[in-house]
Design a protein that fits this description.
The chain has 252 residues and is mainly alpha-helical. It contains 10 helices and 3 strands, in the order αββααααβααααα.
């Protein structure tokens, strides 16, 4: 719908430019003499847009065409310029040509029954100004509406919509906080180190049934260790005496 409206407004602006070109060479004021013979005065009975405003309408039409191309690309200053061209043409028609539509000029001084009226060019330039104003103003309004619609769409994705999306999303389980290095070491259970790959598991000692209940057997004293224990318990003099006795026994 917006594209169709923009196309219609662009067509209206282009038609306004064409009408300005035509109005430049069309009759703005037409003077007629009723009930008289041929007019001998060397004056023009038809005043065109060029006679009234020179090339002003052509320059305005060229500027409006250039601004219309920029307006179609979305430039708001160009849209405003097209509307300004339309206002300028309307001012020329209303303030420049409308007060002189009944002015017969030199012909009225020569002929009492001379009269003047608006020609086709006056209506064409007025219509051209209205079309340019409508095209520029309409495009500006459409651009403002599109910007407002885009702002509403952006506002629709604001905090309220994000809150509703978060409420509609499935609840996730709370994540566990990351423990500190010391806490992680304290909480980690102590487990026996796993044997390396290829190594056989350590063998656990096996006990015979009933061996744990049997009483322990007393150990027998070693006869060779008794003399050494006795020597350790004797004094130095007794040791010396025994050494002498052993020596005498060997000599005997």
């Amino acid at each position: 719908m917006v594209r169709g409206a923009r196309g219609a407004l662009a067509t209206a602006g282009l038609l306004g430019v064409v009408l300005l070109v035509v109005a430049t060479f069309a009759t703005i004021i037409e003077i007629t003499v009723g009930g008289s013979g041929s007019i001998t005065a060397d004056v023009d009975r038809e005043l065109s847009g060029y006679d009234r405003h020179s090339v002003a309408l052509l320059l305005i039409g060229a500027a409006a065409l250039a601004m219309l191309l920029g307006a179609l690309r979305g430039a708001r200053p160009a849209m405003l310029a097209v509307a300004a061209c339309g206002v300028t043409v309307l001012l020329i028609a209303v303030l420049g040509d409308a007060p002189d539509l009944d002015d017969t000029g030199p012909i009225g001084e020569l002929y009492e029954d001379a009269s003047a009226k608006a020609g086709t060019g006056f209506y064409l330039e007025t219509l051209a100004g209205a079309l340019l104003l409508m095209a520029g103003g309409g495009l500006l309004v459409l651009a403002g509406g599109a910007a407002a619609l885009g702002g509403r769409r952006e506002a629709g994705t604001g905090p309220a919509q994000r809150t509703s999306e978060a409420a509609a999303a499935p609840a996730q389980p709370p994540s566990r906080p990351t423990p500190e290095p010391g806490e992680a070491a304290a909480e980690r259970p102590r487990t026996a180190p796993e044997p390396p790959a290829g190594a056989s598991a350590p063998r656990t000692p096996t006990t015979r049934p009933g061996a744990a209940d049997a009483p322990a057997r007393p150990s027998r004293p070693d006869p060779a260790a008794e003399p050494e224990a006795e020597e350790k318990s004797l004094s130095f003099e007794a040791r010396l005496r025994r050494a002498r006795e052993r020596a005498m026994r060997r000599f005997d």
